[in-house]
Amino acid sequence: MKIDILIKDASQVATCAGCDRPRRGKEMSYDIIMEDGWVAISADRIMGIGKGSVPREIKTDDHTLVIDAMGKTVLPGLVDSHTHLVHGGSREMELALKLEGVPYLEILERGGGILSTVKSTREASESQLMEKARRSLDIMLAHGTTTIEAKSGYGLNLEDELKCLRAARKLDGQHPVDIVSTFMGAHAVPPEYDGKKEQYIDFLIQEVMPCVKRMDLAEFCDVFCEKGVFSVEDSRKLLTRAGEMGYKLKIHADEIESLGGAELAGELKAVSAEHLVAVSKKGLKRMKDGKVIATLLPGTSFNLYMSKYARARDMIEAGLAVALATDYNPGSCPTENLQFIISLACLKMNMTPEEVVCAVTINGAHAIGRGKEIGSLEVGKKADIVVMDVPNIDYLPYHFGINHVDKVIKNGRLVVDGQRLVY
Ligand code: IZC
Ligand code: ZN
């Protein structure tokens, strides 16, 4: 077989291989790493991987790109399983309020926060939204992220939700980063439905969700279940109908207040529950029973000035599968850099480097329904691979705040070389 790319002599290869479902509890830390390894790629697939020197049957020729990864670490392309990619505008003006101590939910109550981004998003054209999102995708790719999830939820009417979802779908076709879309019309109640939340929920269920599904613009449905936004009852109604329409389910649960979103995720067997900073013990138990992935977003705690971070250790000890993501959005977490999240997860949530690597690769892939294709380095999987200029995975969280990426291979193609985009 023709080898298009051969990566050899890597000091470590984080394979994350050998488990065809999310890794739970202790599974998150064993058999993640292979010392001194190589990976062979043919077309868009991994066709060989191993330890030590490359065996003779792996035949290279003049056409093979040979990457010497001596002193470097090879990982699966990072998966950012929770982002709010497509939106207009920015919210740096909220920084001063935040510094004065005004809470996130109060800024939203005053008509700012999410609603200020809704205004900018409605004012933007589809191509303006695409150009802004494309710049973010480039930053993500340059930092080693090869697949993301992207939520709608800044349009909050039929036309503007469709505009954002179409933008994501077009970018998925045009940009090397793959995008899995989530419909999140239940992100906030828009101004035209102020005081009429029930009617807004009915509008989503009767008009928007069936239309998005018919146009095949989103695979998942998500709800911002939070005090003053959507209650557990609202979320149950929305997500139950979403499930009947064929959406897979996610839920922003117990981010700021312990409402019971995690319990609901377990009850509805959601694929994942996100945030979970204020989750109850019962919530964790229900999630375990429902095999719900815990998607943790420590960048949000960091950026919202919260002293509390999600209790990752309790979750892992309870046997849950944990994924980590940026939550990239213009308000609570304006960063595309998943490597910074890796550092926060270690330093603020006591996760080990092995657990963190698992959480941004194979578990992230399962959290967006792509665990069979990506997230680990094994024969037959898609060749989405990052070469980091670090001698081992411990170095990633340790040397924080910088970009460690040397090369990125997406779908078997070199797309980042020496930190420069080359696609
Ligand atoms: O725009 O503030 N938490 N949604 C739920 C967000 C944060 C995004 C935002
Ligand atoms: Zn979010």
Write structural notes for this entry:
By secondary structure, this protein is an alpha/beta fold. The protein has 15 helices and 17 strands. It has 2 domains: 5-77 and 376-421, Urease, subunit C, domain 1, CATH 2.30.40.10; 79-367, Metal-dependent hydrolases (TIM Barrel). It has helices at residues 94-99, 104-109, 114-123, 126-142, 158-174, 197-214, 232-245, 261-267, 281-289, 298-303, 312-317, 338-349, 353-359, 362-367, 395-398; strands spanning 5-14, 33-42, 45-51, 65-68, 73-76, 78-80, 145-151, 178-186, 220-225, 248-253, 272-275, 293-296, 322-324, 385-388, 405-410, 413-417, 420-421. Strands 1, 2, 3, 4, 5, 14, 15, 16 and 17 form a 9-stranded mixed beta sheet that branches. Helix 9 (281-289) links the parallel strand 11 (272-275) and strand 12 (293-296). Helix 4 (126-142) crosses helix 5 (158-174) and helix 8 (261-267) runs parallel beside helix 9. The relative contact order is 0.17. The model has no long low-confidence stretch (mean pLDDT 97). The site of zinc ion has 4 residues, from loops.
Brief characterization of the structure:
By secondary structure, the chain is an alpha/beta fold. 34% of the residues lie in helices and 22% in strands.
Identify the CATH architecture of the largest domain.
Alpha-Beta Barrel
Bound molecules: 2H-imidazol-4-ylacetic acid, zinc ion
- Low-confidence runs of at least 5 consecutive residues: none
Write the CATH homologous superfamily of the largest domain: Metal-dependent hydrolases
Strand content: 15-25%
Mean pLDDT rating: 97
The name CATH uses for the topology of the largest domain is TIM Barrel
**Number of helices in the DSSP assignment:** 15
Q: Tell me about the biggest sheet?
A: 9 strands, mixed
Number of domains: 2
CATH class of the largest domain: Alpha Beta
Please state the structural category.
alpha/beta
What is the helical fraction, as a range of percent? 25-40%
- What radius of gyration results from the CA coordinates? 21 Å
The CA-CA distance between the termini, in Å, is 25 Å
